[in-house]
Design a protein that fits this description.
20% of the residues are buried. The chain has one domain: Lipocalin. It contains one helix and eight strands. It is α+β, with helices and mostly antiparallel strands and 123 residues long.
């Protein structure tokens, strides 16, 4: 009897842990490359591409020769929140999915904020 209870407990624990990791993943519809504009960001950071993968986000700024990976990513319903380190400044991105081809939100850093407008890139 103890053995069956232990087996059932382990199975329930594995199912619970599996469901937690599934929530941290971004919906398949929103994976891929998105071009963005950030109209009031500092010069050099106003345009680029954001690459959304199932558990990470990477930002590429037009004109800069490096990529900025996310430090962490949180996904909840139709929102993606992530933090990146851009030129030694922590930037918090809060994005809300409007439809399969459009995302809007904000980027906030220690002394500023800008609106983010993302459009799905088509191959």
């Amino acid at each position: 009897m103890k053995n069956k209870v232990l087996q059932l407990s382990v199975i329930m624990l594995l199912l619970f842990l599996g469901s937690l990791s599934a929530k941290a993943q971004i919906k398949t519809t929103y994976l891929g490359s998105w071009s963005f504009s950030a109209p009031t960001a500092p010069e050099g950071y106003t345009y680029g591409t954001i690459e959304i993968k199932k558990d990470s986000v990477t930002t590429f700024f037009t004109g800069l020769n490096y990529k900025v990976p996310s430090i962490w990513v949180k996904v909840k319903n139709d929102s993606i929140t992530y933090k990146s380190l851009v030129d030694d400044a922590e930037v918090l991105f809060s994005l809300k999915i409007e439809n399969p081809t459009s995302i809007k939100g904000d980027a906030v850093w220690f002394d500023g904020q800008t609106q983010m407008i993302l459009k799905k890139k088509t191959d």
